[in-house]
Amino acid sequence: MKKAVFLLLSLSTIYWMSCGGGGGGTPTPPAVTISISPTTSSVEIGATAQFTATVRNATNAAVTWRVNDVDGGNSTVGTISATGLYTAPGAVPSPGDVTVKAVAQADTSKSASATVSVKLRITVAPATADVPAVGTQQFTALVEGVTNTDVTWQVNGVAGGNSTVGTISAGGLYTAPVAIPAGGTVSITAVAQADTSRSDTAGVSVFHSNAMLSGRYALSYLGWDPCFFVIAGSFNANGNGTITSGLGDLNNCTDVFPAITLTGSYSVSADGRVEILLNDSLANDYTLHAVMISPDRLRLIQFDTFATGQGQIDKQDPTAFSNAAFTGGYAFRLEGFGFTGSGWMGAAGRMSADGAGNLSAGVMDVNEDYVDTNAVAFTGTYDIAASGRGTATLDTPLGFMNFALYMVSANKANVVSLDLVPWTLGKAEKQTLGSFSNANLTGDYAYIESGTSALGLGTYFNAGRFTANGSGAVSAGVSDENDNGVTAENLAFTGTYAAAANGRGTGSFASTRGTSDFSFYLVSPTRAVFVQQGAFAVATGEIEAQSGPFSNGSLTGDYGISFDGWPSMTVGQFTATGAGAASGTVDINTYDSVADAFVLEPNQAFTATYSVTANGRGNYAVADASGPLDFHVYVISDSKVIIIGMDEVLSGAAEKQF
Q1: This prediction's pTM
Q2: Domain 318-430 in CATH: superfamily?
């Protein structure tokens, strides 16, 4: 009985304790907490930022918003609404950081804070602008919210800019560069001096203008009217559309007209296409259409109903206008009619100029009417006037050859015959090395040649590429040719070559079409000129080192283009996307043999597709109003491409504008 009572008492005690007996109370509720989002923000004067506050462990989720501990803020530090929308003040406070605080109404001892950096506002105007080369555009920068409103101006991130992208004054006056900058656009940025982390940027598109053509220029081209003619000369462009102080030498295969005077005018369009009107002292008028590759170089055709032609214009360096500037070894090539006056002639050679009017160590290879005369030794004299025009005489076993020459620079001169026979046009380029060998011809090269051939008995073009091993062997050769409309595409070839110390070399390429022999003259390890040998063709050309590998992306940007051919000459401009598409505008001068007249087609729009392989060879298909035209291309670099036509007998090059 006692045990039962004890057990009952024990159970009662346990029950009493489990029911809170012993003096306990209600449990402590969890503490109220509050958080804010975001915890940091950067806001321009007058702008807004939304904040949110989250209250936990309370049925009352309401908060009181403060700025710098002022309920709702004020005009100095900014205001904040009951919903947490902060509005920055109209001026940057001091200090520039303010504190936004949310206070829990359920427990006012609990709060959460965020830091807001109030920033000045800066605005550049205009936001975009189109500016001609060498033209100006005034920009302004409005700085708000601070007393120091000064700015630092930048062009493409360069304070004050530079000659490549253009310059900008402390007052915001932007002056575009002479040459179109890469991509054709630049950015103008104003950086606030009160806070250098704050800036605004405007975009500028720079386009071609008359001002780009300014200074002394040399021109050279070969034409037909319907007799072949050659002309070389120089003129002064004033940067505002006027040509003065021109000199020229014209050889039209029936007579020679030395040192004629030239005047005229010009107009440069926004895409770089140029119209030049020349008048000479013989009362001849010439219309030239050109495309500006840069302020230093243009490609041109004659654009008249009575004549056509194709050539180039190069800016001259007046410091080269003396005998002393013409010194060292020079390689050259010539094309025109030969010593008999009845057949086409091509020649390539080299000579040494002593800077005092004497030429020595001359040697050249000549192909006249499919007959070779190789390694012709010669001497000569020259005299260069302060105008940049000079004369030169070569004393060769074939006869004397007299030329007018126009100095482009100490490294280059244009030459034109002053003889009725032979009459030729060409250029001389300074050799960069004093001694050459096979090792100087190493790597990948592309070439183009033009002339006449015995097969087609008409205009002949050939373009290709190859790899030279530096020891006299050629591999991985491929070429395309158009022989007066008879085409051969994707011809594989191998070959050999041998270069002498003076830069003269011989080479031979073998393909399924047969063997092609030539003599070449090295200008440098990256460039050579050559003349075709043998009875197959009378042609000359140029070889240039490639910088591959290549792809469609190798052709990106704006290019100037010109074609030499028959019956059409073409010049213009196009834009390549880098993804296999292009579009542009060209001017075409075509000889109509039925009407015996030249037909002018200005402003012909076209589109094209292209594909480029790793070795630089590719296809270029043009669609225009006259129908599709197929070309092959050989990429030298992203700045230059050789082009040869398959549907029409023509070849040329595209050079990058920007």
Answers
A1: 0.89
A2: Quinohemoprotein amine dehydrogenase alpha subunit, domain 2 (2.40.128.120)
